[in-house]
Structure formats: C-alpha cells, structure tokens
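Exercise 7.
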Amino acid sequence: MKIARMLIPTLLLCLTFSVATATHAALAPDPGQPSIPDVSIISAQFGLFNPPESGKEPFVPTTIVPLTENQGYGWVILLETRNPTIRWREEFTLPAAPTTWGNPVPDAIHTVSGDGRVSVMEREVEPEQGVISNSWAVAPGDPKGRYVIRVIIEGTLERVFEFDVR
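Solution. The predicted structure, written as tokens, is:
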C-alpha cells in the first residue's frame, strides 16, 4: 500500500462533477431562506485514477480495484462550504496488513493500528472549487479482499466506500 502522489486535474474534477456543480450552483442560498450548514456533501465517488498516458479515462467510478502495481484509486468529494479550509479524517481498513503503507504525507497526521490493518490519516486542506480527495496506489504485498474507507469531514459528515481489490 502506498500513498499516491497524484494531482487530480481541475478539468477532471469539473468533468466528473459537472452535473453536481450545476446542482450546486442552483442551490445557492436565498437571503430569505434559513442558512445552510457550514459544510454539506453534494457528491461523493470512489474509483480508479489513471495517468494521462494510459489512454484511459482519468477517473473511473468503480467498486473493483485491480491488484496491479501502481494502479491509483481513491475518493473525490464535492462539498458546498463557505469554509476556506476543511478538516478530514480517513479511516482505511484492509483485510490483512499490507507490506507497507507507503511514505508519510508531509502535511498529514498518519497512524497505523498495532495489527497493521488500519490506517488513519488526518488533514486540513483548501478545497479546490469545493472538491477534496485522497488517493492511494496498489503496491507489492497489498492483500486481496474487501477494503473499507470511511471519510469523516469536519468531525461529523461521513461517507463510507467499500471496494474489492482483486
């Protein structure tokens, strides 16, 4: 298991969430209506991240990750928020301990459970056009089986992504 240092192009995010963004704009607060929460989730997806040279779509929603070295995967969440930064926590559970959890991300708090099966990463980020994300890449020694990623945003909102690596 390793953390992918993949940058998600703004164009990709715009294309992936074009419908959600249109809805997002339509939901702009009306001064005569009650205020909206500080953060709300408009859309959340899990899938594969493919490099431009692969000839594949940059992001493909799926619940199956091929056990192929360097295959990128992860989540993308579109938020409606007035906050300049967003705190998120990712709890990532594997069916067995991987050979490695990869190199630490400089601006993240990252811990691994004693049995090596659970990674917890916490970050504070500036959303790009309301989008936050995290990605990983398949590494030698990653186990096959059911993986679960639980994302907690600002301590309360969450999304759970379950997928199989095979």
